[in-house]
Write a structure and sequence with these properties.
Elements: H1 6-19, H2 40-52, H3 55-76, E1 81-85, H4 92-95, E2 102-107, H5 109-121, E3 128-131, H6 139-145, E4 154-158, H7 167-180, E5 184-191, H8 193-196, H9 203-216, H10 228-234, E6 237-243, H11 244-251, H12 253-256, E7 266-273
Parallel strand pairs: 1-2, 1-4, 2-3, 4-5
Antiparallel strand pairs: 5-7, 6-7
Bound molecules: S-adenosylmethionine.
C-alpha cells in the first residue's frame, strides 16, 4: 500500500464516499464492496471534508448513480467491452457482471496489487486488468494483449481522473485512442473551471476543495466549462453533458434541494468517437 502514489490514495476516499450509501434508506446506487477498502484513518480524512461541505456526500452519490445508469444502459444496448481507466476500487465489474461482457481494470501497479490482495482475501477473482500509467503506455496495444478487440466498440469509464491530469496530457491520450480505436465512448466526471481556478462563489466549496487536496496531497489542475473542445480537437461527439446536481434532482429530489449551493461546479459527460 505504501507504494501507491498520492493520486492513488484518493481511490480510498472515493470508496469511503461509496460506502456511505449502504446506510441510506433510499439508495441511488449499490456497491456492497466499497467497505472492503476503507479504514478508520480514511474515514477520518474524508470527514475533514464532509464537515466543511456535507453536500459533497450528496453530489458524489449522484456521480456514482449516473455512471451506473450509463453502464446499465450501454450493456442493455449491446456493449461488450468496458474498460475502467484509473479504476481505483471501482467494483462495477462485479456489480454489472453480465454473460458476454468483458471488463478491464486499469490503474497504477501498486494500487491494483493492493486491490487484488483484498479481493483474493474475500474470495473474489478480479476481472482482467492492466497495471500501468495509462498515459505512458500504448493503451490500444495493451488492450489487444489483454484479449480485447479494439475494432469492436469499447466503453471507457474515466471517473475521478480528469481533474488530476494536465489538459495537454488528456488531449494526447485521446489522440492515441482516436488513432487506433475506431468506435468508443468515454464517460467521465469533470469540475467546472471555477473549482480549478478557485473563483467559485461559494466559500465552503473552495474550503472543502482545498481541504481535500491538502489532506490527500493532490492538486486539481483541469476542469472544463464546455466539452466542445473535444469535438473540435478530436472529432468526438458530446453525447451528454450535464451537472450532477441535475441528476440528483431526478433521482433523489429530497437531497438535491438541499444542495442547490453546488450548482455549476460538478458535471458528467459522455464523449463518443466513430460509429458508436
Ligand atoms: C480519485 S481515484 C478514482 C478511482 C475510481 N475511478 C473511482 O471513481 O472510484 C483516481 C484513480 O485514478 C488512478 N489514476 C489516475 N491517473 C492515472 C494514470 N495516469 N494511470 C493509471 N491510473 C491513474 C489513481 O491511481 C486512482 O486510483
Amino acid at each position: 500500500m505504501s507504494d501507491i502514489n498520492e493520486v492513488g490514495t484518493t481511490a480510498f476516499a472515493v470508496a469511503c464516499f461509496r460506502e456511505m450509501e449502504r446506510n441510506r434508506e433510499h439508495r441511488v446506487f449499490d456497491d456492497p464492496y466499497a467497505q472492503w477498502f476503507v479504514t478508520d484513518e480514511i474515514r477520518e480524512k474524508v470527514s475533514r471534508v464532509t464537515e466543511i461541505l456535507p453536500e459533497s456526500v450528496e453530489i458524489l452519490r449522484y456521480r456514482f448513480c449516473i455512471l451506473d445508469e450509463i453502464i446499465r444502459r450501454e450493456i442493455q444496448s449491446g456493449m461488450k467491452q468496458i474498460v475502467i481507466l484509473g479504476c481505483g476500487f471501482d467494483m462495477r465489474s462485479l456489480v454489472f457482471k453480465t454473460e458476454g461482457v468483458r471488463f478491464c481494470d486499469i490503474d497504477q501497479p501498486a494500487l491494483l496489487e493492493f486491490k487484488h490482495k483484498v479481493l483474493e482475501s474475500q474470495g473474489v477473482t478480479p476481472c482482467a486488468s492492466i497495471p500501468c500509467n495509462y498515459l505512458e503506455v500504448d493503451l490500444p496495444e495493451e488492450l489487444i494483449k489483454a484479449g480485447f478487440d479494439i475494432n469492436s466498440p469499447i466503453l471507457f469509464l474515466w471517473e475521478g481522473n480528469s481533474m488530476y491530469l494536465p489538459v495537454e496530457l488528456i488531449h494526447s491520450f485521446f489522440d492515441s485512442l482516436c488513432a487506433r480505436i475506431p468506435s468508443f465512448k468515454i464517460v467521465f466526471d469533470y469540475y467546472s473551471l471555477s473549482i480549478i481556478d478557485k473563483t467559485c462563489e461559494n466559500p465552503d466549496v473552495i474550503r472543502a476543495a482545498n481541504m481535500f487536496q491538502e489532506t490527500f496531497n493532490v492538486t486539481w489542475v483541469t476542469g472544463f466549462d464546455d466539452l466542445s473542445v473535444f469535438e473540435k480537437r478530436h472529432g468526438m461527439e458530446v453525447e451528454e453533458s450535464m451537472e450532477l446536481l441535475e441528476v440528483g434532482k431526478r433521482v433523489a429530489p429530497e437531497g438535491a434541494a438541499s444542495i442547490a449551493a453546488l450548482a455549476g461546479v460538478y458535471n458528467y459527460g459522455i464523449l463518443s468517437y466513430g460509429d458508436t
